[in-house]
Design goal:
It contains six helices and 14 strands. It has 205 residues and is α/β, with parallel strands linked by helices. The protein has a single domain, classed as Rossmann fold, CATH 3.40.50. The strands form three sheets. It has an eight-stranded mixed sheet with strand order 2-1-3-4-14-13-12-9. Strand 12 and strand 13 form a beta hairpin. The longest helix is centred in the last third of the chain and has 14 residues. It is globular, with a radius of gyration of 16 Å. The relative contact order is 0.17.
Length: 205
């Protein structure tokens, strides 16, 4: 069973719908016992970083997630805001994150005089593989996925970078560290390749 953590942020039902299309058993829950009983976890989300952390804290989920992911080694996939919450901190609300990945979440900014890139970064963009991971089995390098974000993850450890993307600068679009997997893009909105990624997480990670 995959449990999609319901912490009051957006886009949770789209992820659940994707697993239903794949005929993989999954459910939304904020219940601590159900999170503990799950085989794998997903932390998706669209919205403000500080609000996301506040919501996890208000639901008493942070300690449980630390125990399940860091101590027990349960696989977890962070999507979009979920990936950002895995980092140490964010410029969005100047808030601390879960700190599972050696990275920070920073706001897009481009030097004066250079081409202006619209923020938020919305739409299809390609990824370039870094560290090999089973999350991308059967998916080609330079495949495009769907993005919606105004902040991006800046990794401090190249070994954790599973993919990067160009959008005015080269940013980390996917990370992997042991049992922790993350994508800045939305696999649930990325058609067949996105579904393949979700199936890889369910079957191979």
């Amino acid at each position: 069973m995959i449990t999609i953590i319901d912490y009051g942020m957006g886009n949770l039902h789209s992820v659940l719908k994707a697993f239903k299309r794949l005929r993989i058993e999954a459910k939304l829950s904020s219940d601590i016992a159900e999170i503990q009983a799950a085989d794998k976890l997903i932390l998706p989300g669209v919205g403000h970083f500080k609000r996301g952390m506040d919501n996890l804290r208000e639901r008493n989920l942070i300690q449980t997630l630390n125990e399940e992911v860091l101590e027990k080694g349960k696989p977890i996939l962070g999507i979009c805001l979920g990936m950002q919450l895995f980092t140490k901190s964010s410029e969005e609300g100047n808030a601390e994150g879960l700190g599972w990945l050696d990275a920070e979440t920073v706001e897009f900014s481009f030097p004066e005089g250079e081409k202006i890139f619209r923020i938020p970064h919305i739409g299809w963009n390609s990824i370039n593989f870094g560290t090999q991971t089973s999350l991308y089995d059967g998916i080609s390098d330079d495949t495009s996925f769907y993005f919606v974000h105004s902040y991006y993850v800046k990794s401090n450890n190249d070994a954790d970078v599973a993919a990067s993307t160009e959008y005015g600068l080269n940013f980390t679009s996917s990370m992997v560290k042991s049992n922790i997997f993350a994508t800045q893009f939305h696999p649930e909105k990325s058609h067949d390749d996105g579904l393949k990624l979700l199936k890889n997480f369910a079957d191979n990670c």
